[in-house]
Each structure stands twice: as structure tokens, then as C-alpha cells.
Amino acid sequence: MVSQARDIAILRYGSAEPLPERRLLKAGPLTAVLEEGGLRYIRYGEQEVVRGIYAAVRDQNWGTIKPVFREFHVVTDRIHEFEVRFVAEHRQGEIDFVWEGAITGSEDGTIRFTFDGEARSNFLRNRIGFCILHPSDLAGCKVEVETEDGTGTRTISGVFPERISPHQPFLGMTAIRHELTPKLVAELQFSGDLFEMEDQRNWTDASYKTYCTPLSIPYPVEVASGERVQQAVTLRLVGEREDEVGGNLVEDSKETSAEISDVQAIRVELRDHVVGQVPGIGLGMTPGRPLAMSELEALRPLALTFLRAVIRLADPGWERELANTAAAASALGAGVELEVIVPGEWEGRSEVGSEGQEQSQGQEQSQGQGEIDSRGQGHSHVQGQRLLEVLVQAIVQAGTVVDTVFVFPEAGFVSQHELSAELMKLRDSAGLSFRVGGGTRAYFTELNRAELPLAPMDAAMYTINPQVHAFDIASLAETVSAQADTVRSARSIVPDVPLSIGPITFKPRLNPNTTSEEGRRRSEDRANHTDARQWSLFGAAWTLGSLRSLSEAGAERVCYLETAGPLGVMRDGGEEKYPLYHVLAAAAKLQGAEVLDCRVADRLSFDALAVRANDGAVMLLAANYTNETIRVRVESAVTLQPSELLALDERAVRPLAPVVYPAPAVQDGGALELELPPFAVVVVR
């Protein structure tokens, strides 16, 4: 048994450092969680009003400069009021910026957050200041927005978008209001800058983000030493509160500054209603080498549907990469998906930048090169065509194992009509039947914003990772629900095309929005893609939540991580499996099975996937996203007859593997109760 506190922390969430301290604050009928200089989960009773308010410093490549907090003071002398003051310092490279933060909460339900900062060096920035996160559960909710557009202030009506909005729903914002009850409105007011909103579900953040500094203003901007930035955000309640008419939204408590610990059982309602099916599961092929026999044996229990390889036709070793992948897939009885990157100039190339503003890398390159001989472009195009011909012949030699080829231009991230059509023509001439896929090799954002070659596309892909904007455990856990939103929105873009989502990784494998060559190289360096949380219990819990969301939303295929190594599901050689390996092993025989409607009261803390296997038995896979032991009560309209419980938690011995326990007792009425240690994953079957 793992006994040392340090080892337990590493096993739980990949680090020996303690997780950030949380404090529960109360402002009249509102509660909020204070964490590292920001507010999270502002609630009116059980209703989430604001997901988060925080300040960020973003560099010229949209990198977030993590702050160090000092002089932190919290005053909670009165039960329903609070005051927080601190100093935050952001230092990285040439950037040196400091700001004083003050947060106050009043008994009338008003929360005010001020930012007073100063640059202590000269540097380039894309943004400095407040971001406000609105929970994605507000999708479809009506809003009123006060805006300024240079001609004055006006109020407009709208809604939080249901389908993921490719661009900003609201611009030039000074305030936004939405209804909490028929008689009560939550209002956010902004000062110090104009604000606008983006739909962060584009990057699988489960929120809409209202942020300072409109993107219509050119960036990056040079900040001079001594320059000041001052902003404020105020949340207030307008109307009649339930606690003023006999309600009891916030019980009096003297423990307002205590760490948060949920002792109530989380309620899960399992319904006899099919909402999806488990997709075919694949892994990325670890590049640069064949899989060892021991690794192949370790992968067999996963019953993989496919392996996916990245093939760069400009690299001299790509044919060996394809051969290694085909050999491994044949040994595992799996198919092969290829993500092929083709050099050369292809018509219609375009890209879209992440923070709401279009960027064309191709245009930037052409401007930097000056005039280019059209014969050079033609030569490059012919070279690309010849490489496609060689690729098709290599696929012929690989046999029928290759079933899908996603093809992209080297100079872009979105598939292009001419390139896809050329590959289809070569495929048909060779008498092959693989699907020619398109979409984007970057985020869903690029799929959502691009004009795609819809006609020559037999399948679509985009990648997922939870760390585009935030990097803490809680924020990563929040992203799993938004993964489903991307699939549902993708259906409106490519309605009749199978979706193969992935690779699904813990860190970005590239940055489609970097403004420098150094930033591009750094983002694509595999050494920067590792995240110890991938090897932890949290990694297993996150993978389970991801699989649940993508199953319910209707993805046909999902591609996770890689086969072996630091970016894989097990260590090199296959002897030691990471915890998430066991989640995929539990799901192996469930591919194609029916997913049942499983309603979890608090998906920020806990998640569950309910599947009816081919023999009719119902299996429940559940995960704890927190560093606390939690209790869960499952109330089921489906007959549950569990024979055992498999637990993956810190009680297991190394190498970590699920431990079998007696099945939980089914109570009268079909309910059962579970207790999950921190970051544990259990399978009830």
C-alpha cells in the first residue's frame, strides 16, 4: 500500500505539491469559493451564477503567465460579508507585472473585485485584466447586454448561445444581466476597459468568457515600464430575493473561512433511456519506433478499434512510420487511421486564430517572403502530388488495415478541397476503399470557423485537450462536459459525416495561434507535452468523464493519447500501466454498447458512465474528481444486479491495478450507495 503522503499526492494528482487552498465566502444570499486570487462557483442557493472571476496576463503568443501571490489577507468577521486583499506578481522572461487585488462581499448580495496593476518592465502582451466565466449551463438563457460602440450606450437583448458560437456573441460590453428567478436578475458591471464575450466551449472550457480589451484592437501591444492598468467587476442582485420572502438559501455558519468539504451524498439518477453508445476507441501510435512484443501483449486487453499515426510526407522516415503502425494494428486486430501532412501550395488555404480574430499564417508567410516565383509554387504543388501518389502505394502495400486517411496541408491546420479531392482520385484509381477525412488537426475552434471542403470528406476530426486557457485540476475536470458540446455543434457543420475525435491529450500538441516561429517550435516539441497528471488517478477519472461525454454526444470514434511512453497509456515496455489504462480496459468490451441516461447532481465533483452491455447487464463506471472522499447514492430505474466492484485508488499496491471488492448491496427500490476515496475510479458490474 502507498503510505507516504508525498507518494499519495503524486498518485492522486501527479504532484507532491498540495492543491490550492479553498475558502468558502458568503455575501448575503451568495456563496463563492476563493482560490488563488480568484473567485469560483458563485452561487445563489444551488444555482450557479458565475463560474469564475479572475485576472490574467497573456503574452504575445496567448501564453498565460502564472502569478505568485503575496500579502494575502482574508477578513470574514461578519457571517454574510467578506473582504480579501492581496498582491499578485507575474514574472516570466521579459514580463514583470504586479497588481493589487481587492474583493468585497456585502450582505445585500453585491460582490466587487478591483484590479490595480503596474508594469515593472517593457514587454509585449495580448491581454492584461479581468476575465469572467459564465457557466455553460446557461446555454439558451436570455440576457440583456449594455454596450458602447463609439456612438453611445445602448442595451441589446440576446441569449447565451446553444450551438457553440464561432465568434463573439457580444461586443463592446459594459454590463450583462440574466434571470435567476422570475423576480430576480444577476447583473455584472465592468469598468476600466471595454469587454466582449467568446464561447469558450470552442476549446472545451465549460463556460462563456467575458474578457477585457476587444480583439478588434491590434495585438500584441507593447507595455511600457510604469504603465498602469485599473479595472473593476461588480456583481449585484436586482429584484426580490427568496431569502427576503421566507427562503433559506444560505444557512448561518461560523465556519465561513473553513476549507470546503462536502459531506452530503451526491445523487445520481439512472434512467432506462438510451442516450448514446460507446464509440470505437483508438490510441495514437508512439512515433519513431515499432511496438515491442511486450507492449503489444499489454495492449490486447484494450481491444482497440484502431491506431492513429501522424505521417509527415516531407520527413524521410514516414514510410517506416506507416509500416510500424500497420504492423502493430495487424497484430492487434485493429484498423489504422492516418493523419497525413502534405507539403506544397494548395488553393484555399486559410486558418483561424483562437481568440476570436482570424489569422492567415499563409498570408503572413507570403508577405514575409515578398514576391514568389509562380513556377516555384507549381513545383511545390507537383511535389505534393507525387508524395500523395507514393503514400497511396504505401497504403496498398499495408493491405486493408488502413481505413481512414485525414489529409492536411503542411502550411495550415484545416483540410482543403483541392488536396482532399486529389487524394480521393488517387484512392479510387488504386481500387482502395479507405475514407478520406478532413476537418482540422487543431482545436474544434478551427473546424467551427473554417470553410471546409464538405463534398470530398468521408470523415471529420478535431483534437481535444483541456489546457488551452487554464491548467489546474478543477478547471481540467470542468472541461469534460464541454467535449459533448463540441460533438453536438460539429454535427451542424458536418451533419452526415462520421466523427473521429482526437488525439485527446492532456496538453496541446501544437499552438495554431502562435505569432512567432519560436512559439511554434516550442508548442510542437514533444518534451513539452508531458503532464504527470496523465499518469495519476486524476488522469483516469478525467478519461472516464471524457468517454462519457463523447459517448453520449454520438462520436463514432475517439483517439486517446499514445500507446506507450510518457504520452501513452503505459510506460515503455508495457510492464507498468498508468491508471487511465484500466479505464480503457474496462471500456474495451463495451465499444458499441448502449449508453444509458445517467444524471449526476454535481459533475464538477463526480462523474459516471452507465452502459448496457451486449448481454443486457448494466455496468456503472464512476469517478471522483476531488481530493476528498465522497459518498454517492445511485437511484436506478434500471435493474441493477452487480456481482463485484473494481476499485482503482490509493489502496492498491504498485504497480497500480484495480482491486476487486464485494458488490455494493442493492437497497429496496433499486438504489445503491458508493464511497469513493480521493480521485478514485470504480466499476460496478
Automatic annotation (TrEMBL):
Residue stretches of biased makeup (Low complexity): 353-371
Domain of life, source organism: Bacteria
Entries under InterPro entries matching the protein: ApnL_C, ApnL_M, ApnL_N
Pfam families on file: Apionate_lact_C, Apionate_lact_M, Apionate_lact_N
Residues of the D-apionate lactonase TIM barrel domain: 281-592
Residue ranges constituting the D-apionate lactonase C-terminal domain according to the UniProt record: 607-684
Chain residue ranges for the region called Disordered: 349-379, 507-528
Limits of the D-apionate lactonase N-terminal domain: 11-238
Bias (Basic and acidic residues) ranges: 517-528
Name assigned to this protein: Uncharacterized protein
Organism: Paenibacillus lignilyticus
